[in-house]
Amino acid sequence: MFYEVTIIKPNNKKKKIISSKELSDNYWADFENKQKLFSTKKNNAADIRKN
Question: For labelling alongside 17, which of 1, 7, 45, 48 has CA 20 to 30 A away?
Fold first, then answer.
């Protein structure tokens, strides 16, 4: 479960609100990309660590 995140500027004003749906989508997209890197034949450990 992901909770909505509010990003606040240094002057205490809201900069951006990231919805739980957006956070979830970003997480799973990143997870799938890492799985693709892991499953490639020419697996390079340095590539996985960068992501």
Answer: 48
